Amino acid sequence: MPTRVGIITFPGSLDDRDAARAADLAGLEAVHLWHGATDLSNVDAVVLPGGFSYGDYLRAGAIARFSPIMTALVDAARGGLPVLGICNGFQILCETHLLPGALTRNDHLHFICRDQGLRIDNTATAFTRSFTAGQEIVIPLKNGEGCFRADERTLDELEADGRVVARYINGNPNGSMRDIAGITNAAGNVVGLMPHPEHAVEAGFGPSLDGLDFFASLLHSPISASGASA
Amino acid sequence: MARVVIDVMLKPEILDPQGKAVERAAVRLGYADVRSVRQGKRFVVEIDGPADEQALASIRELAESLLANTVIEDFSVRVEDN
Known about the structure:
Chain A contains five helices and eleven strands. Chain A is α/β, with parallel strands linked by helices.
């Protein structure tokens, strides 16, 4: 049985098809899930894709957080289901409080779209086990509200627990505190990432193939502490 | 029917780049006295029945769960006179 990865499409999602394609290329089986569904179709993991769910109305991710499928997703994530939120998906995970902090408007106000260097600082999460500690990668970054903020105590906790998954290198593109590009929850099954691994999975498209390893990480055996089903 | 107004502002310690951009434009336009601008959101909610304590408690819950992200924002609730 291939590992089945649910990709949730919200009204305004843009990168759901790219995420599904990336999952397939990594040897997983992508399963399309609609935000209006109330169950997760027994998938082994979920990706919340990038885009502008509900037009970013109110705050990015604020309305998607209350989509019907999110009730099932939050429960499953608390139970150990691997969940990767990319860009808007990261914003949604912060709005649900599955991850701490918030993503706010880039400090320079401009939308950015560029190839971005990252350093992988945590290789124990469900989505980073295929990397080596300290590995430097380049994948696309494109957002208007990617400035990660949290209070100092939360930031210190994240650092002390090794929950900063990825950091921007060669320049901070959006004002994120402590150069944070991605974080994880305490169990390591929920990961939020502002840059886009799903756009760096195929030769000839994007700056690298570095994005594949986020998806291929799901092929490793599940993290034992999480209780995730195999 | 009653009308309740909820103002949502970024917490003082959170950088407000939109407010900063407005501030710079105001100064550029010659409003030299403008010292700082913070930008926020206002929600005007009409409710059935009076704005009693129970109704306002419900509105505060709405503000806390949906209208504001209390990680980065503060909100205030008041009843609008008519």
